[in-house]
Amino acid sequence: MRPVDYLRPDDVQQTVEAISTLPGAKLLAGGTNLVDLMRAGIEAPKVLIDVSRLPLDAIEISDDTIRIGATVSNTTLASHPVIRQEMPAIAQAVLTGASGQIRNMATVGGNLMQRTRCLYFYDETTACNKRQPGSGCAAIGGHNRGGAILGGSASCVAVHPSDLAVALRMADAQVEIVGTAGSRLIPLANLHVLPGTSPQIETTLNRDELIIAVHVPRSAILRQSRYRKVRDRASYAFALVSVAAALAVEDGIVSEARVALGGVAAKPWRATILESALIARPATDAEFAQAARAELAAAEAGPSNEFKIHLTERTIVAVLRQLREEGGAA
Length: 330
Known about the structure:
Largest sheet: 5 strands, antiparallel
Radius of gyration: 20 Å
Helix content: 25-40%
Shape: globular
């Protein structure tokens, strides 16, 4: 047993002061990831700062944006009528993400900050640069079926496990952050980082900062967005490949496309090459497949996950076909 101090601040400012001054402090919301990591001995915080009761649990609707508080539960988010109607991919991503019990506890902010579920990360008897920088990466050349095919490095091929983050990346979400220096709003694309030579650094958050909300721009194209998750079993499994997409088609020609991928990289992967390749092209399966192959041209698979390249292409085509047949967003 390790002694752990517990603190429940009254507001965001007290929280910022606590995390900036207390060594070894970790934020605790739903605890669906952090508690697992503590049980596994990967995280050993000296202080748990409970943010679950901070006033960050509202979903606010304005003319051009939906602001989702960081402690909004995944269940609340997925069941919100405006989210379901205007951004169905977000609701679908949450519903595929975990069991109902976990969704009731898990929060939006915690979902974005969760750590990888790589088998080697959780196994303290193996080398893992995320867990112990400089020790190596046993997944490279090992059993890396769930590993990255895009954006990996010689130091790490672990993938980010969040489903919600993939849908939010497709939706051009921004993250509202507060720290001792004040508040800032950054694109979700700039929150997570690829491993490079420092895979233990997973986000651009400073030590004294916390996420307080996610902003999602309202857009007509998101009304017919879709999220598809391919996994080993139908319930409570992490993605081998996932696709969040929205498509606008006018007179059979693609006028706008948004695609993000999950289960294939250390961060939610926006398929910008694919998107550019689709614009002003016919909305056909052949064009979808060609654009997907262009996106995946830089993919690097290990001995156990070469299948992901082909699975990703097929899943992209299937989702875009579904959107086309549903009419796209004019």
